[in-house]
Amino acid sequence: MDNNLRQQISTRQLSLLVIYSIVGDMLLILPTIVSTVAGHASWISAFAAIPFGILVLWLFYALSRLYPDGTLMEIIRSIFGKWLGPVICVWYLAYFLLGSALYMREVADFIKTHILTDTPMRVIIILATITTTYALMKGLEPIARSAEIFFFIFMAALLSMLVLAIKDFDLANIRPFSGKGAMGIAEGGFFSVGYSFGELCMLMMIFPFVRHRSHTRRDLLLSGLIGGTMLASVVLWCLLVLGGYYTSTELFPSYILAQTINIGNFLERVEVILAVNWMFGIFFKCTLSYFAFLTGLSRLTGMRGAKPLILPGAFLLFGLSYLISPNIVYYTFTMKNYYLYWDITNGILLPLILLTVGLMRRKKVPKPA
Amino acid sequence: MLIVLTVLLGAAAGLRELELLFRKRRIGEAIVCGALSLAGIACASAAASGKAFPSPLHVLMVVYGPFNRLMVSLFG
């Protein structure tokens, strides 16, 4: 990662990374959380969140274009100054670090619960840490290229799951349409925007490495639309096939949805293939979040590159992924009751403040005579 | 045994990077790298021990607890 300044990714690669990051871990946990608060109407929450999510993406892009050569760390320091700036930078670094540990823990919990039930959790986390560390050592460009390589398989598997599950639809499962009422729908929308799109604030650490074109903004927003639609479709499918009760009580309803696929007693038990494919999304999200942490730390401390931090940081990632939650109940409770506020603070409120102050300062600069 | 192995591996990884940084006389970077190594070794050792430690997410409960209670009291 020392030569990160020379590494650049294309707009297309950025868009694919955005889709992976939106779908990522949310594919596993969003249906449960949204249907807990919105009931049968959680699909309305998920679809209604898409335009707001696209606005959030626009916010990140607009902020990064105000300071085209700076990552989020430089933006914060130039707007908030040399005293408050570093404090907010450290706040964001903690967010990126805990976020990457949390994504890794989610995938470890999922694999431990459904696939490798007898394998110790720490072994799964070690394997995930090695993969992430290896990717980071290679740099951002190889990560983006592998995102391109795997994208077709990723989308094909996801779409095939949706198509093959259509035969089990039961429209009665989404009635009454109002679910738990307008407040429930609004709350579900907050979860959808905060988790799926708010967590993408790590993109502001990546924008300086993107080769910007005239269509970059359009592609970015389009990828938000595609990712959000895929995610909302999974929520709708879970409701239509499993019903509101099972969607809200199962830990990973998407996996249960994949288990229902059975075509003429011939094509069945494909859920593990699909689930392993979903790991791509979580891998890219976790890697990008950890990239944001390491790059941010190196920028904040004035290092020439983040490469010396990768190996020592791998131990921190492994340790935190294990320690971040004693069990899955604690994790789900924290995600539902507290983590959303952190996502909204870092993904929406602070960027909004940064953009407002940045625009005001730009207007105050006197124009040359 | 697992803890000792973790500490040794963590120290080896940290020392490898530190040696390179000291050779290039990047003292400031070496301090950051050393601090990260120490934090990594501490966390990884705690994870390797398998004992229960307070979750870092507990900080979120402290920070956002009052706001969450306000939201619950307002909207149920």
Largest interface: A-B, 38 and 41 residues
The proportion of residues forming helix of chain A, as a percent range, comes to over 70%
CA gyration radius of chain A, whole angstroms: 20 Å
Biggest sheet architecture of chain A: 2 strands, antiparallel
Under the CATH scheme, which class of chain A? Mainly Alpha
| Number of DSSP-assigned strands of chain B | 0
Number of strands of chain A: 2
Q: Distance between termini of chain B?
A: 50 Å
Low-confidence stretches of chain A: none
Instruction: Please tally the helical runs of chain A, counting DSSP H or I stretches of 4 or more residues.
Output: 12
Second CATH tier, the architecture of chain A:
Up-down Bundle
Mean pLDDT, all residues of chain B: 90
Annotated CATH topology of chain A: Amino acid/polyamine transporter I
Query: How large a portion of the residues of chain B is in β-strands, by DSSP E?
Result: under 5%
User: Number of folding domains of chain B?
Assistant: 1
| pLDDT < 50 runs, ≥5 residues of chain B | none
The profile of the biggest β sheet of chain B is: none
Element string of chain A (H = helix, E = strand): HHHHHHHHHEEHHH
Q: Structural class per helix/strand content of chain A?
A: mainly alpha
InterPro entries (chain A): Spore_GerAB
Family (chain A): Belongs to the amino acid-polyamine-organocation (APC) superfamily. Spore germination protein (SGP) (TC 2.A.3.9) family.
Subcellular location (chain A): Membrane
Transmembrane segments (chain A): 14-34, 40-63, 83-104, 119-137, 149-169, 189-210, 222-246, 275-297, 309-333, 339-360
Architecture overview:
Chain A: Pfam families: Spore_permease. Chain A: The chain crosses the membrane at residues 14-34, 40-63, 83-104, 119-137, 149-169, 189-210, 222-246, 275-297, 309-333, 339-360. Chain A: Belongs to the amino acid-polyamine-organocation (APC) superfamily. Spore germination protein (SGP) (TC 2.A.3.9) family. Chain A: It is a multi-pass membrane protein. The complex is a heterodimer of chains A (369) and B (76). Chain A is an all-alpha fold and 369 residues long. Chain A has one domain (2-352): Amino acid/polyamine transporter I. Chain A contains twelve helices and two strands. Chain A has a two-stranded antiparallel sheet. In chain A, a hairpin with a 3-residue loop joins β1 (262-263) and β2 (267-268). Chain A is globular and about 65 Å long. Chain A starts with 10 loop residues before the first helix and ends in a 5-residue tail after the last helix. The mean pLDDT of chain A is 90. With 76 residues, chain B is an all-alpha fold. Chain B is built from three helices and no strands. Chain B is elongated. The mean pLDDT of chain B is 90.
